[in-house]
Amino acid sequence: MSQYGFHTTGLEIVNDFSGNVKGRTFLITGPSEGGIGAQTAISLAHGAPSMILLLGRSLTKIQPTIDEIHTINPSITTKFIPIELSSLKKVRTAAQSILSDTSIPKIDVVINNAAIMISPYELSIDGYELQLATNHLSHFLLTNLIMPKILAAGPGATIVNVGSLAHVLGDINWESTDFNKGRTYDAWSAYAQAKTANALFTVALRSKLVKRGVQSWTLNPGGIKTNLQKFMTPELLAEGVERYSGPGSERPPLKSVAEGCATTLRAALDASLVERNGSCYLSDCQVIEVGQNLKGYAMDRQAAERLWRMSEEMVGERFEY
């Protein structure tokens, strides 16, 4: 639908695809107040889903989102599930709580939204570079562990991995994902690596689950002023803009959170979307191809399989479909 673009809001998408919201179960990571994850959940509430699973670090940060959902529609079941994305052990605990909860028979849509951005060098509890661990490895593990409930939803189940335009700033640092134990660490390159990993994870999921009728999409939500930018200094911002657009360039225009969640929601709800020239990547609510602010290395099938195997080694578990 070509009418969708930069200024499309999440509510517009939900209204247009309300039939793919009503009565379904959605899982969203990182729905803290004020972020696009929260706005994604709040927008979905207007379409009367059966259940929204909200995964975050603390209930205090998620409760305003829950309250807003219930203000819109008190009949929606909401479940807060604590998760710490820098700990594989805690990801497993969250996944097990979902699997063992008989009131959650299936999950129709998974939206892997949570992220950290351009953080100082740090290792996760498990010893991996923190941006890669939080943004990719945690979602890789979570999604695979709860796969039985995704598959229980049958054909039409969808997995959405929220990426970023920042992937254009760098591929996976295959030889050293922790940047030589931090000696060659660069915050933008580490963020780019994690966002490229989101895209490659999506490519791998598509190839492995297409025969089961499960869709997978990744996307650039656009620039949105949220708590994601808490590490953004004027110097880092200038560096990022220069590396993307060249010296003297201005920052691209920002979206509101209502606009920022729209591309996520189209990926999650529009069953008519089709892969285009090997691309499963959306920007401004449209599927785009390699070359349109999308790097070929982010859609490479061999790289996607390589990342899958590497991720399995890092989480210590194999997943076959």
UniProtKB/TrEMBL annotation:
Q: Name one GO molecular function term.
A: oxidoreductase activity
For whether the record's keyword set contains Oxidoreductase, the answer is: yes
**What's the family?**
Belongs to the short-chain dehydrogenases/reductases (SDR) family.
Q: Which UniProt keywords apply?
A: Oxidoreductase
SUPFAM superfamilies tied to this protein: NAD(P)-binding Rossmann-fold domains
Native organism: Glarea lozoyensis (strain ATCC 20868 / MF5171)
Which InterPro entries does the entry mention? Answer: NAD(P)-bd_dom_sf, SDR_fam
Keyword flag Oxidoreductase: yes
This protein is called NAD(P)-binding Rossmann-fold containing protein
Coiled-coil region(s) at which residues? Answer: none
